[in-house]
Specification:
By secondary structure, the protein is of the alpha+beta class. It has eleven helices and 13 strands. The strands form five sheets. It has a four-stranded antiparallel beta sheet with strand order 3-4-5-6. A hairpin with a 5-residue loop joins strand 4 and strand 5. The model has no long low-confidence stretch (mean pLDDT 89). Keywords: Bacterial flagellum, Cell projection, Cilium, Flagellum, Secreted.
Length: 561
């Protein structure tokens, strides 16, 4: 015998289920503009029919339905699209950071323009030609000294500004590492909350959303792998569980960053074993300590613990993935199997130092073979001194020459007559040697340097030969610099193009993800009407059953009344 009130129970379940669906629709509408929110859906399933299987089950015309129930509230999410999105985020993080670093370098180099190093060279050579035309003119000599100071100052400026940006990138490495640690900690805390909720049979969808948003952000810095770990207990089959996040190096070594409620911390160290902090003029070494390695603490242990999971260096990163690798490549790094410091900014600074060193050595060599206005007819040897000097200079040595230390010697600045513009002693109107100095702009400096053949009457004069300590690969001073600028332009163009490509692909993937996971107000309005009508129909059904029961209870047994 079926229950008299079975229809009431079926409609009551319908009311509750449609009500849950309406509430979920309202939750979706409320979070339509919430970043990272994934639309939710109430999964409905019919309840067990009547009668159940058994020896004493009554015989009925059919298996009668008993209504509907809400089995779970689930996010609408595609794991494959999420993985695609994070892969493209890896690439975009790398190329976006590299494009920004190159753009800042281009702003400092300011080429081609009338303010860059190339123009400073042009003005200097032009001033020497003016001296060759009027060697006895004090004004022409002073202008040449001013142009030389401008050239040296330009070298100094480029060195200072590039090192400042390099230091900022070092600071950004520290900030990025701190941000990564913060994200790992937050994910671990969310895992802990999820582990407490899921065993009770609930789906903490909003916690899932918060965790996935953090995971998207983490993949901007480093590429990671995710493994889901079931919470146990009465957790639903579709529950996502806690995340185990690992990082796999290029050689296959796997390091665990998050495991449930426990997490590791990362620390970026330089070659001196100190934290990378952007100090490119270290007080202890009076130099630059490049990036050496990322140290990963043990899971659950403080970062300063003496025991760690291990470490990985620049060579262990996946190529062109993640903002952290891009920052390291720009800042500069040294791998254990490499004796040299590599990186975008260190290499540019090293090339500027090389250019400054070769230029000063060559120019001083030729200048020392000329005669000043102070020379007399009985001078037996050239009296040209050092024109440019660097750190630690003496009367006979130019010292250490770098782009940051090059300057005009005090002797030349204090006495313009000491510019060696003459090819013979005691000839005020002789500016032939200034011409030779100006002609250095077209001298190619290879491994063997160059020789200037002299045609001078003094028997003590020998040909001037310059043998460089380092060469410019057969280029002139300016063509070497122009090649650096050309390569900078090519690299900047490539970075901008790949950044654009990564942005475009990620946008496409993001649109695909949004089409599935984001809230559509039109769709939610349709759902709202659907669930509302279903709710009303269930309420009407209860009214019908109530009227039926009223007839049975109050109307039966009253024949003739």
């Amino acid at each position: 015998m079926r229950s008299t009130f079975m229809g009431l129970e079926a409609s009551k379940r319908g009311l509750f289920t449609q009500q849950s669906a309406l509430y979920t629709t309202g939750h979706n509408i409320s979070n339509a503009n919430t970043i990272g929110y994934t639309r939710q859906r109430v999964n409905m399933a019919s309840t067990l029919g009547y009668p159940g299987a058994g020896l004493n089950s009554p015989m009925t015309a059919g298996h009668i339905g008993t209504g509907v129930e809400a089995t779970s509230v689930q996010r609408i999410r595609d794991e494959f699209i999420d993985r695609q999105y994070r892969q493209e985020t890896n690439k975009l993080g790398y190329w976006e950071s590299k494009a920004n670093a190159i753009s800042q370098m281009e702003d400092v180099m300011s080429e081609p323009s009338e303010y860059g190093l190339n123009e400073a060279f042009n003005l200097f050579w032009s001033s020497l030609q003016d001296v060759s035309t009027n060697p006895e003119d004090s004004a022409a000599r002073k202008v040449a000294i001013q142009r030389a100071e401008h050239l040296a100052d330009t070298f100094n400026y480029l060195d200072t500004q590039l090192k400042q940006i390099q230091g900022n990138i070092g600071n950004e490495i520290d900030v990025s590492t701190t941000q990564i640690n913060s994200i790992l900690k937050q994910i671990a805390e969310i895992n802990k909350q999820i582990q407490a909720v899921e065993p009770n049979g609930y789906m903490p969808n909003d916690l899932y959303d918060a965790r996935d948003t953090l995971l998207d952000e983490l993949n901007e810095y480093i590429p990671v792998s995710v493994e889901r770990v079931k919470s146990g207990g009465n957790a639903l089959e579709i529950a996502e569980g806690s995340y185990k996040i690992t990082y796999k190096t290029a050689d296959g070594t796997t390091m665990t960053l998050v495991d449930g409620k426990d997490y590791a911390e990362l620390k970026a160290l330089d070659t001196a074993g100190n934290k990378v902090d952007g100090n490119v003029d270290d007080a202890a070494t009076k130099g630059y300590n490049p990036f050496a390695q990322i140290v990963v603490s043990n899971i659950g242990n403080p970062p300063d613990s003496t025991t760690t999971q291990g470490s990985f260096e620049e060579a262990d990163f996946e190529n062109s993935k993640g903002k952290l690798l891009s920052l390291i490549n720009s800042y500069g790094f040294k791998n254990t199997d490499s004796p040299t410091t590599e990186g975008y900014y260190p290499e540019m600074l090293a090339n500027l130092d090389k250019l400054a060193q070769v230029f000063v050595e060559a120019f001083n060599t030729v200048h020392q073979a000329g005669y000043t206005l102070n020379s007399t007819n009985d001078s037996t040897a050239p009296d040209g001194g050092l024109f440019f000097v660097g750190e630690g200079a003496t009367a006979t040595s130019a010292g250490t020459i770098t782009a940051g230390t090059i300057k005009v010697s005090a002797e030349i600045k204090n006495d313009p007559k000491k510019i060696a513009a003459s090819s013979a002693p005691g000839e005020e109107g002789n500016g032939k040697w200034a011409t030779e100095l100006a002609n250095l702009q077209s001298k190619a400096v290879g491994a063997n340097g160059f020789t200037i053949d002299l045609d001078r009457t003094n028997p003590n004069d020998a040909n001037v030969t310059y043998t460089p300590t380092t060469d410019l690969d057969g280029a002139t001073f300016q063509s070497f610099y122009e090649s650096l600028i050309g390569q900078l332009g090519v690299d900047g163009q490539e970075a901008a193009r790949l950044q654009y490509n990564s942005e475009t692909i990620r946008l496409t993937v993001a649109n695909n993800r949004a089409s599935m996971s984001s809230v559509s107000l039109d769709e939610e309005m349709t759902n709202m009407i659907t669930f509302q009508q279903a709710y009303n129909a269930n309420a009407r059904m209860i009214t019908v059953i109530d009227e039926t029961l009223d007839k049975i209870i109050n109307g039966m047994g009253r024949v003739g009344l």
